[in-house]
Amino acid sequence: MVRIVAGVAGGRRLAVPPHGTRPTSDRVREAVFSALVARRDLEGARVLDLYAGSGALGLEALSRGAAHVQFVESDRRAAGVLRRNIETLGLGGRGGTAAQVSAADVRAVLRGDPGQPYDVVLVDPPYALDEEALGGVLNALVGGGWLAPAALLVVERPAKAPTPAWPDGVFALTQRRYGDTAVYYGCAP
């Protein structure tokens, strides 16, 4: 069972796609958001959730006060489940502007115009995504104007994978391990 940990939707359950995604566990999500709120107030933040799956990370951010979350998920079935989760939890905001879902490839989206930059970026790719591809995503975030000043980046990887190489302009803050999962935190200048 996947649920929202805290905020206005705290305790509410999320639907998950039947296969092909790996939702972040409640324990890891709680730890991630404890680390985030220790560094930045999420109230009013703009959040980008890449490889969103069921939307658990971005929905947690909305529940805790983020003003806007852009979800990017390439699997159309998972994107459909994500849209239903937004609707079920009532976190779409007035006119649906608080939560937007792009059912598209992350790299294709990052080649586009970000509009306004993001304060927090959550990157939870499939564990099979190789380090070179992950590096390309992180570089596109920096080079494409996706990051606001002092934006926080969170990257979730398998604990056995190498530490992600942060692009120039992003510095490592910390990393934590939770069983088979490692979470890396970085900050834009």
What does this entry look like structurally?
The protein has five helices and nine strands. The protein is α/β, with parallel strands linked by helices. The strands form two sheets. It has a seven-stranded mixed β-sheet, covered by helices on one side. Strands 1-2 form a two-stranded antiparallel ribbon. The longest helix is centred in the N-terminal third of the chain and has 14 residues, at 26-39. It is globular and about 40 Å long. The termini are far apart. The model has no long low-confidence stretch (mean pLDDT 92).
Number of domains: 1
Low-confidence stretches: none
Radius of gyration: 15 Å
Beta percentage is 25-35%
Head-to-tail CA distance between termini? 37 Å
Question: Can you lay out the helices and strands and say which pair or pack?
Answer:
Layout: E1 2-3, E2 13-14, H1 26-39, E3 46-50, H2 56-63, E4 68-72, H3 76-89, E5 99-102, H4 106-110, E6 118-123, H5 131-143, E7 147-158, E8 171-178, E9 181-187
Parallel strand pairs: 3-4, 3-6, 4-5, 6-7
Antiparallel strand pairs: 1-2, 7-9, 8-9
